[in-house]
Design brief:
heterodimer; A: 3 strands; disordered N terminus; B: alpha+beta; Alpha-D-Glucose-1,6-Bisphosphate, Chain A, domain 4; 7 strands
């Protein structure tokens, strides 16, 4: 996936898990190797790698293997763009559709004349 | 050397779906709230104490256009400009729209609304697919922005 192509559904799915959110939080403070990321969770390396794969698929995280060490970092562009979408569309529509619900409750039989 | 304006060009493709169930109203009734400016103005526009409508037109038919231009009390002008592509009364609406924020074109999107009977009520499924243009935020540090975002998303997902 090119760095500027994001899928919000993937982003939300990736962030719906507390371990993955915590990984993103950790990476937002600076890059880290996979084993450094695995340490605080008492998880197996393959389990962490699976979480990282989902984060990479969502475009939130990038990794690069240098020698035998895989280093992960946050992809700020994806976050910035995800934030734009999140704030300006989803929230807007959430509010609108709530207002629509209130409107329908007031006028269940049709538009007011 | 890369031109500054050119280096800021970007496009992100996004898609999201929102579902709502409205109790005790028919799909036709919910559809009707989308079908006229009078109906739509009751819920579609921003809260009126912080925002005034500058321009409003609506031609609800396939090929017809809808425009909504407004100004926030902060001075920011927003512009919504849509063209209807598919209208099935009581069942479905599809329109494409562009959004402007002041002079900036920020997105071009396709919005689909499906109205489905659900018991005595209606399930509304809204899907937006869009191209978000030049969306990079150049102000402040992206790293700290990222942390703020995670906080916000976490709060949202845990609520």
């Amino acid at each position: 996936m090119p760095p500027t192509a994001i899928n919000l559904d993937l982003t939300f799915r990736a962030l719906a898990d507390p371990t993955r959110r915590s990984i993103v939080e950790r990476l937002s403070r600076g890059q880290a190797s996979v084993s450094e990321l695995a340490q605080p969770y008492g998880m197996s390396l393959p389990a962490i790698v699976q979480h990282l794969a989902m984060l990479e698929e969502s475009g939130l995280v990038r990794s690069e293997k240098i020698g035998r060490v895989r280093t992960c970092r946050i992809e700020p562009a994806a976050l910035s763009l995800a934030e734009q979408w999140f704030n300006q569309r989803r929230e807007e529509w959430d509010e609108r559709l709530d207002r629509l619900g209130e409107h329908l409750k007031r006028f269940p039989d049709g538009e007011p004349k | 050397m890369i031109d500054k304006a050119q280096s800021n060009r970007s496009v992100a493709h996004g898609v999201f779906t929102i579902e709502r169930t409205y109790q005790s109203v028919t799909p036709q009734r919910v559809f009707d709230a989308f079908a006229s400016a009078e109906g739509k103005n009751n819920w579609f526009t921003a809260p009126n104490d912080r925002w005034v409508i500058v321009e409003r037109t609506m031609d609800f038919r396939v090929g017809g256009r809808e425009r909504l231009k407004g100004q926030w009390n902060t001075g920011t002008v927003t512009e919504f400009d849509a063209t209807y592509f598919d209208i099935v009364p009581g069942e479905r609406i599809v329109y494409a729209y562009e959004m402007h924020l002041d002079e900036r074109k920020i997105s071009v999107s396709l919005a689909t609304f499906e109205f489905k009977p659900m018991g005595t009520g209606t399930k509304l499924i809204m899907t937006e697919q869009g191209a978000f243009l030049d969306g990079y935020d150049d102000s402040g540090s992206r790293e700290s922005g990222s942390r703020d975002l995670i906080d916000k998303l976490s709060a949202y997902l845990e609520s």
